[in-house]
Amino acid sequence: MPCKLLNLCEYETHKLVRIQSVRLGSLKWTFNGVILMFICIMMLWNKEYQEHDYVVSSVTAKVKGVALTSLPDVGDIVWDVVDYSGPSQGKNSFFVVTNVIVTKKQRQGKCPEVPPYGKVCRTDEDCVKGFWDQHSHGVQTGACVKFDVTRKTCEVSAWCPIESKKKPPKPALLASAENFTVLIKNNIRFPNFNFMRRNILPEMTESYLKRCQFNRHTDSSCPIFRLGDIVKEAKENFLEMAVEGGVIGIQIKWDCNLDGFLRNCLPKYSFRRLDEKESNRTLYPGLNFRFARYQTEKGVEERTLFKAFGIRFDVMVFGKAGKFSIIQLIIFIGSTLSYYTLTTVFIDWLIGTSCYSKEARQNYSEKKVESVQDRKQCILCVSFVDENHIRVVKKSHKKSLQQVKPISVHPCKVRHLSAMVGVLQKGNNIIDKPPQVLPRPNRPAWCLCGCCLPSTHPQEQLCCRQSIGRCITTSSLFEQLVLSRPLLEAVLLYREPLSDLTEGEQRIAALRNCSYRQYINWRIGAPPRESIPVMPSCSVWRIREEYPSQEGEYTIGSHHVVTVQCICTGVLI
User: Fold this and answer.
1) Cis peptide leading into 161, omega within 30 of 0?
2) pLDDT tens by residue, 8-39
């Protein structure tokens, strides 16, 4: 279509095929109803009519509790929040000590390194002065000293005596930490809606917060949690976890609906363990760190080293808020309209199955699908006198049309044959003695009837036969149906009753073109859709010899092709 400004004012729409069928109509509305129900359920369930925003939050935690432990060679120690909280664990996390290994009265000095971190030696030559690595407790002095009754190790400058215990004590020394409580304060905001809230809800009073404690079944909104309950909710045992420590995740989920009377925005808590708990399945199980308490004894600095094991609690906040938006509703409705094409696809498939007869399927296909050939690939149809079907071939610029292989074959559909016979019956002798047509000299190689003329164009190199034999122009019917002047004049008058058939070049051209149409209707009939019928060379030149042009020029075209439009407007009688 050429690009013009007027094309902007044009409107195009789709062509529809309407099938009058109660069964198909009922099936269509049933499917459409099911699809509509599915769309409505999904819209309400997923709140697709809402605009959404994601949470921005901050978290603080305050742990409370006191524990008393009795440590060997140390005595009773009271642990309060300062002692068992440990160093800062970063954003949204807190730590609670549950077990310790104590090495008391360490002083700066020289002592044998502890295996396996220290090198077992025999003489001083086995030790390197000033050597250390990432596993050493100090720097080697170069001396080999006695470690125990059977072994010697390299001496190091370090805090002595060196920590020797590897495994934490069982049961955990601070197992009573499971009764500690933590107050988690979570403030959230949804920027797009300018909505703020915290997990300490407006209806909670000071007296309520002093006595409440989180319980999944009885008080699921309380922001104060017992550590033992947190670990239990994560499906873990606090006493076992307290030995080596670990990491517990506290998940706070905000799923908020900000629509009018349906407004609802409450936190939901869940808990899970985040680290690998099996000691035999990981190289470094649990969680621990070291800290020391320093004192001076007789002017000498000493320290008590604590290797603390404990549980780190990571608070993770997730959330999404939704509010009605007409734009989101329109977008959702528009995106789901495509689901209705499933009805068309299913019914089209059903019609194409054995549920319908072959005739019904073919009739529906012809009404629904209109095939259009690409004009860059010209499709031709040819007919041979020694075959009972029509060949459909592609136009070739190199190979002779006689030798081109067909892409499909179709039965010959002769139109108005009874009317033709009625006209022929006006004569006394329908079939006379065959006319004498002499073979032409210089017969080309592709000619099998002996009556074709040479041509340099591949699309003109077409004979009336596929095997050697008699030419169709020698047939009595060719003379009667194609060349007979009375018949051609009757056809012209049938088409145009008031046409002037006076002698002259115009009358000869009309008879010649009518003869072309007569041949096409006789040998090909109605050509397959979008294909152009082609006449054999012998027939074309025989017609032109009978009705020649005075100037030697023929307007039907040099390719012996009669267009589909000419065929459709011609009437054979």
Assistant:
1) yes
2) 777 777 778 888 888 888 999 999 999 999 99
